[in-house]
Amino acid sequence: MPAAGQTTVDFNEAFFDEMLNSAGVRALTRGAAEKALNIAKANAPVDTGAYRDGLQVEAVQHAHRTTYMVVGTDAKTMLIESQTGNLVKALKKAKS
Q: What is the pTM of this model?
């Protein structure tokens, strides 16, 4: 067994960039975000409907991959989230 510091690993970054940006991986990650979005909308508190209707999925480009986030565009999103935790609950439910 090599001692600490004697083992090196060289990753093929181009391979991982290609794989993480492939259509299949993007579809899987977007699908997970869409699942959380649907749960969040189904459980959203409704007064005027602006909060629920303002929930959407956004793509976020990083150095080596694209991720997807469920975001709220209504001005009261942060207030509603602080009181209900709707998005956190939706993410936890989508994970199971």
A: 0.81
